[in-house]
Every structure is written in structure tokens, then in C-alpha cells.
Amino acid sequence: MQPHLNVQAVQDALDAAGAKASAGHPCQVKVLTDPVHTAAAAAAALGVEVGQIANSLIFNADGEALLVLTSGAHRVDTGKVAGLLGVAKLKRAEAEFVRLNTGQVIGGVSPLGHPAPLRTLVDVELGQYDEVWAAGGIPQAVFPITFAELVRVTGGTAAAVA
């Protein structure tokens, strides 16, 4: 069976970047039996702490897409992030804006595999874990990666976002 196009795009991006999980193994997208639309559901399905889940949240930052990869253990402080980036208006993006900028649906947005690179912030809180898990392009796909690799492969900036 062929993988979903979004899953293949994410795996191709991980392969092209030479992305590594903990222990130096190449990152491999894993398709779960059931969708995991929330950090809590993903953590339960994987048997990991909710803080190890890297939520991929898309924001509209003065009309431009911003990807914030945040620990599933807390919420993004939009005022703090807006100040950090110097944007006047930062709000959670609507479903169509997310789909237009990522090619993916809310609940399955991956940190990479998008039509074009996105400005990205990576929550420093994810750095406390040896391995974190991110969405793989659809709600039932995930992949393991280290914090340092997540920052590197997304071209993101580590930041305190909570």
C-alpha cells in the first residue's frame, strides 16, 4: 500500500535533511492505527509523556504563516510570541489558511514537508527530552526526532513560547 502523499512528503523531507532520532537512527514516519488529534492522544498511543509531543501550531502573523512547535505540556503565549517576533497581530490560523500554507490538515500538521519553508519557532521546553514526537502530515502519522534535529531540519529558532 502506498503511503499517503503527505506522509511521503514528510518522509522525503526527513530523508533529504538526514534527520536523526535518538541513538542516531534515521527518522521514520510511523502510521498509527487511529488518528491522534491531540498531544494527550498521541502521548497515550506512543506511551510517552505529553511534554514529548511537539505540537505543530500554525499562526497568522500579520498575514504570514508562522509555525510554532510547542511542547504538548503547555500552551503558546501569543502575546509573548508576537513581541518576540515584532508582529502587530498574531492569531491561531483558520483551517483553510493552515491547509493553504502547509498542504496538511489541523491535527496532522508536520514540522516539514510543506509546499514552501515556513518561519518556525521551536519551544525550548522540548529540549529537556532525549526524543520528541511530531506529526507526520496526517492525524495518524508521527515520527521521533531529537530537539536539536527538529531545530535543524525546520530551520527554526529555539524560543521560549509558553
Question: How would you describe what is shown here?
Answer:
It is a single chain. The protein is α/β, with parallel strands linked by helices. Helices cover 28% and strands 24% of the residues. It has five helices and eight strands, in the order αβαββαβαβββαβ. It has helices at 5-17, 39-46, 78-85, 95-102, 147-154, and strands at 30-31, 53-61, 64-71, 90-92, 119-123, 132-135, 141-145, 157-159. Strands 1, 2, 3, 4, 5, 6, 7 and 8 form an eight-stranded mixed beta sheet that branches. β2 (53-61) and β3 form a beta hairpin. The radius of gyration is 14 Å and the shape is globular. The mean pLDDT is 95.
Summarize the SSE layout with pairings.
Layout: H1 5-17, E1 30-31, H2 39-46, E2 53-61, E3 64-71, H3 78-85, E4 90-92, H4 95-102, E5 119-123, E6 132-135, E7 141-145, H5 147-154, E8 157-159
Parallel strand pairs: 2-6, 3-5, 5-8
Antiparallel strand pairs: 1-7, 2-3, 2-4, 6-7
Would you kindly provide a brief summary of this structure?
This protein is of the alpha/beta class. The chain has helices at residues 5-17, 39-46, 78-85, 95-102, 147-154; strands at 30-31, 53-61, 64-71, 90-92, 119-123, 132-135, 141-145, 157-159.
Quaternary organization: single chain
Tally of separate helices? 5
Largest sheet: 8 strands, mixed
Q: Which sequence of SSEs, written as H and E, runs from N to C?
A: HEHEEHEHEEEHE
Percent strand equals 15-25%
